[in-house]
Amino acid sequence: MSTADRSSDERSREEQTAALMSEPKLGYIGLGNQGAPMAKRLVDWPGGLVVFDVRADAMTPLAELGATPADSLADVAAADVISVTVLNDDQVREVVGELGEHAKAGTVIAIHSTIEPETAPELAVKLRSKGIHVVDAPVSGGAGAADEGELAVMVGADDEAYDIVKPVFKKWASMVVRAGEPGAGTRMKLARNMLTFVGFAAACEAQRLAEAAGIDLQKLGRVVRHSDAQSGGPGAIMYRDDTTPLSSDHFLHDMFVHTRGLGEKDLRLALRLGEAHGVQLPLADIALRDLAAGLGVPHTTSTVKE
């Protein structure tokens, strides 16, 4: 074979690979409140979409839009990129295990469920010998964001798998972030969700204080939602590269010193109000103790009378 012929063959293989990456056949397993709107945004994918759910009626709306309903997980295993949105860790292991028995080399299995941190890396190692990629890609934003294509997805994947899934994920996500290797997506999601639910607990504590102080909780809720939309809520302080103390010349230092001063003053005032009304505020106590260190600046020595 001549050099020209070999070059032509190499270009042909590269073109075939590029075509596979741009138009793989998609599969989607788990069509619940989160999975159904995500799958719906994939029905017009050029390579086609096959869907499966243990509830046959869950597949009907997607079939009416052009997706192919599957009779079993084995049928979905013929797809090139397979999304899995099931309820829990046990179901993920069961589904991925069965897919691994039937899928071909080069298949990417993307787990969107929130699972144990070690599950995705274990499954990735187990199926790597078969040439099957396992990625964890949990999402944030809820069903409404999925319906609008506005989810954030945190991806734990190797380079090859990430390049394949990114254009697929962009059909239902407006933010696609590679967190690292398999398992990193889940670790990022757990940190993100911890913030949400600790914040919910703090909101409940704030409502107890407000109620005891005679405040209308509906009006308080409106104020909080409005001001969070302007200030960014907790995400407004999340611009650091690490959690070590800030040097005095760090671009965030002066801003965070100011934030610390306001925060510690207001937390002390809230704790005094709670004491006056007999309301315990354990989260506010912890925040007063830990806010400065969390921001990376020293505690203030000022009083609430400043």
Give a verbal description of the structure.
- With 306 residues, the protein is α/β, with parallel strands linked by helices.
- It has two domains: 3-180, NAD(P)-binding Rossmann-like Domain (Rossmann fold), CATH 3.40.50.720; 189-295, N-(1-d-carboxylethyl)-l-norvaline Dehydrogenase, domain 2 (Orthogonal Bundle), CATH 1.10.1040.
- Helix content is 54%, strand content 12%.
- The chain contains twelve helices and nine strands.
- The protein has helices at 3-22, 35-40, 56-65, 73-76, 89-102, 119-128, 142-148, 159-169, 184-212, 217-231, 253-276, 282-295; strands at residues 26-29, 49-52, 68-69, 81-84, 108-111, 133-136, 139-140, 151-156, 173-180.
- A six-stranded parallel β-sheet has the order 3-2-1-4-5-6, sandwiched between helices.
- α11 (253-276) runs antiparallel to α12.
- The longest helix is centred in the middle third of the chain and has 29 residues, at 184-212.
- The termini are far apart.
- Mean pLDDT is 92; it is low at 302-306.
Mean pLDDT: 92
- CATH structural class of the largest domain: Alpha Beta
Shape: elongated
The total domain count is 2
Radius of gyration of CA atoms, rounded to a whole number = 25 Å
Strand content: 5-15%
Q: Treating each run of at least 4 consecutive H or I residues as one helix, how many helices?
A: 12
The termini sit apart by 85 Å
Describe the main β-sheet briefly.
Answer: 6 strands, parallel
CATH architectural designation of the largest domain = 3-Layer(aba) Sandwich
Side-by-side strand order of the widest sheet: 3-2-1-4-5-6
> How many strands?
9
Low-confidence region ranges: 302-306
